[in-house]
Amino acid sequence: TTTAALIVAAGRGVRAGGDVAKQWRTLAGKTVLGHTVAAFARHPGIDRIVLVLHPDDLHRWTDSAVTVVTGGADRQASVRRGLDAVTEDRVLIHDAARPLVSAAVIDRVIAALDHAPGAAPAVAVTDALWRGDTQVTGVQDRAGLFRAQTPQGFRTDAIRAAHAAHGGAAADDVAVARAAGLDVSIVRGDEDNLKITHAEDFARAERLLGAGMD
Ligand code: CTP
Ligand code: MG
Question: Is Lyase given among the entry's keywords (predicted)?
Fold first, then answer.
């Protein structure tokens, strides 16, 4: 069995702001994307990395050890472009904006794919959940609710077919998979596997990356 990592990095990072898109910002001596790619490059279970970049960013990536393709207008389009370049049996689809993904999380996703067509990391919701606007109008039971992370792993043929069949927007690749009826196992995620979304997330990521360096 062969496994590819598909890293989507073609977004513009509008919510995070700044002069360059968030994946190109430097954290603890390396770009966010550099950290993300390295996490998969050093993992023995990953045979190839497919990196999806914005057409304007192609000049920024110079490492020839990865397969580079250009992305599309939204995340789903970028994933589809990336999937076209995957020839491995399995694919782990990951956000470039999650540079703190651990080897243990990658291990768990890969291991679960022995038993299911899809597997993805998540953490159980521990905060109370409210409905409302300026006032609380209701309280949502949090039992059985998870916060989804990436990498989300799939048998490549299955997720490719699911994307081809999917119309409209989807929250992530698990949503696309579920719409196609694929079973997706939940594996234990990691609180530190944050997605850099807003400007304030850089400080937390930098702290965690700095702490993890030898
Ligand atoms: N992504 C992509 N192609 C797009 C949009 C998003 O490859 N057209 C990637 C981003 O680069 C990111 C991941 O999908 O690694 C998760 O998306 P998100 O966190 O929303 O990043 P952005 O879309 O860049 O940020 P924003 O929504 O704030 O503009
Ligand atoms: Mg986005």
Answer: yes
